[in-house]
């Protein structure tokens, strides 16, 4: 999300349609381009959206500027398919399949602007970009069953390995200011051992955000001071908010409206007056996820810590 705009998709006729909202269900704008059989928005920045559209049987990294007619195909000439995972300012990040290999990718608005971020050192066979701050990019590099969370500053040569000692698998999902968030998996650990993670530019800066009692957690976004994602507690996936430590964890799932069970927080932003968190909750009656928006006022300077103020404002439910 960006400001009061949230990106994602709706399912219509068994097909996903990329689009965005501006805080209410009635503001939905359908961005699915002509000829696309499936599309999704993964990132929003100001008036632009980035994601993917399936055209001609291939995924094509995509950029929109608020209308279906504004669609730009970012798929580079050398790639068989591609996806844009995030956008911030003039940058879009994701990956492209080139010669059968997945390559972390950076664009600035056109297919011709494509930059391959895969580092030349380390023997990495694949990579992907997941998030951008507008100047820095995060994602991962991979070789077989080993993956390392990664940070770039616009070129393959700028690559920084964020994987902390003692972990065989890590991924960075978002970057803002000096913060990067994602998850790590311990050596020998299964998928259930994922731990929400926070970095500030180096592997040694790693902070474990996994709260006490959680069997698995992931962080998906940061605004530079707060982090959002989910933690599984008591066997239930619960949308989560942190402010830099595991002890700061706030269970956003406790604010779900009646009828929704598990949940996850996917994005966070602020307009200076309120903090907004978007995500989804599961409705067991319909068997579907429902897009959600949480909000609360920004604490006044010198007030008590954000996460000690007794919870968020009432959740607003969007289907």
Could you characterize the architecture of this molecule?
With 319 residues, the protein is mainly β. The protein folds into two domains: 1-73, no CATH class; 75-317, Neuraminidase, CATH 2.120.10. 0% of the residues lie in helices and 54% in strands. The protein contains no helices and 27 strands. It has strands spanning 6-12, 15-21, 29-30, 36-45, 48-55, 58-64, 72-73, 81-88, 91-98, 101-107, 115-116, 126-132, 137-143, 146-152, 160-161, 167-176, 179-186, 195-199, 207-208, 214-222, 227-233, 236-242, 250-251, 263-270, 274-283, 288-297, 316-317. The strands form seven sheets. Strands 4-5-6-7 form a four-stranded antiparallel β-sheet, with no helix packed on it. It has a four-stranded antiparallel β-sheet with strand order 8-9-10-11, with no helix packed on it. Strands 12-13-14-15 form a four-stranded antiparallel β-sheet, with no helix packed on it. It starts with 5 loop residues before the first strand and ends with a strand. Residues 303-319 have low confidence and may be disordered.
